[in-house]
Amino acid sequence: MSLQITPLDNVGIEVSGFDLNAPISSEIQAQLKELWYEHAIMVFRGQDISPENQIEFSRIFGPLEMHPLKATTSEEYPELFELENGGEKDKFFTAFYQGEQIVGRLDWHKDLHYTARPNHGAVLRAVVVAEEDGLTGFGDLAKAYDALDEDTKALLEKLEVAYSFSMQRRHMRYVNLEGYEPGPFSPRKPADVGFPDFADAVYPAVITHPVSGRKVLEVVEQFLDRVITPQQFGLSNDESIELLERLVAHGKKPEFTYFHKWQEGDMVLWDNWRAMHCTTGTRPGVKRVINRTTIEGDITLGRVLTTE
Ligand SMILES: O=C(O)CCC(=O)C(=O)O
Ligand SMILES: [Fe+2]
């Protein structure tokens, strides 16, 4: 048995040539892990995979983490996080974009970024495929970093960026708010969804991937708030804002991103230390179910801000 690798559009790979339901040899496991570090985003198609097998497969890449939002984990399989559109909870995730109601749209983000200790990765498996929309986007921030000019790279070595957790999208400074209106049931504060009020998390503007050693642009639109003390590094506050706007736009360029259009039997694994992701959402009433497993982050990449 040997793995076949097909590049996806721009970033990531599709991996085929093995059966996810059969025992996976330690040799193949090692190859899969290596590919994960090399490409960050991996798609598997046409797999008729059970929840147990998803959990077992995910463990190849590290110990699994339970998600803090207990209400959305599966009762039977605590490692599985169930993401559902088209059900009772839709109203809490519904907002207006250019006058259109959309359920579950998420800006580009890294999971648990706001804790300073993001999970290492995650696996998504399509359980019910939305009849339209419901794409998941992935962006490779190592490739985005590599493509920056040398002056920007040198500047970023000196800078730190802060992420400020908030429940209200309109409080986020670097997402596109044009034509956005929250829905009547959109959560307004962390306690509304059982979250603590996280303190700001700070990261170097460029991190070194703990395993591969690659440099990763640590600038992602969701919750992004500011450069820490920009004047100490020769930037006015205005310049630091323009820099973050430029970097956010850079990371989202088509050449660093891939949008996965789900089909039945699809599974996607990504490296959350390197890649960001987003979701396009669905129209109200459209059913979409994804099962997710989370690979623990055993390293703190940022720091929780206590003093500035
Ligand atoms: O529903 C999706 O496609 C992904 C949602 C998401 O951001 C996540 O699972 O971390
Ligand atoms: Fe996410």
TrEMBL record:
Keyword list, A-Z: Dioxygenase, Iron, Metal-binding, Oxidoreductase
Gene Ontology molecular function terms on file: 2-oxoglutarate-dependent dioxygenase activity; metal ion binding
Similarity comment: family membership: Belongs to the TfdA dioxygenase family.
Record-annotated TauD/TfdA-like domain positions: 5-294
Source organism of this protein record: Pseudohalioglobus lutimaris
Record SUPFAM superfamilies: Clavaminate synthase-like (SSF51197)
InterPro entries (UniProt xref): TauD-like_sf, TauD/TfdA-like, TfdA_dioxygenase
Classification via Pfam families: TauD
Record-given protein name: TauD/TfdA family dioxygenase
